[in-house]
UniProtKB/TrEMBL annotation:
The keyword GTP-binding does not apply. Pfam families: Na_sulph_symp. It comes from the Bacteria. This is Dihydroorotate dehydrogenase. GO terms for cellular component: plasma membrane. It is found in: Membrane. One of its GO terms (molecular function) is phosphate transmembrane transporter activity.
Length: 90
């Protein structure tokens, strides 16, 4: 079902973004999402190709467990006041 594809892609993207850069995650998954979007005409119910790509972009932005995930996390970590384990707790 189209909804299951969107949810699965969102969860995979979110998990990847938590352990690697969100930009790298989006760069890896955008072509895959585009291929899925083009091959599934039933995705029109959930926004089609554009909707699927927006889901990947937003899901990649939610990864914040490690300092490498986003530049603001790296800046906060570089102050020395926050450790990696503290970021993972939140």
């Amino acid at each position: 079902s189209p909804f299951a594809v969107v949810v699965a892609l969102s969860i995979v993207c979110w998990l990847m973004a938590n352990f690697m850069s969100n930009t790298a995650t989006a760069n890896l998954l955008m072509p895959i999402a585009a291929a899925i979007g083009v091959s599934m005409p039933s995705l029109a119910a959930v926004g089609g190709l554009q909707g699927l790509l927006v889901v990947v972009a937003f899901s990649a932005s939610l990864g914040m467990i490690l300092p490498v995930s986003t530049p603001p996390n790296s800046l906060a970590y570089s102050t020395g006041l926050i450790e990696s384990k503290d970021m993972a707790k939140v």
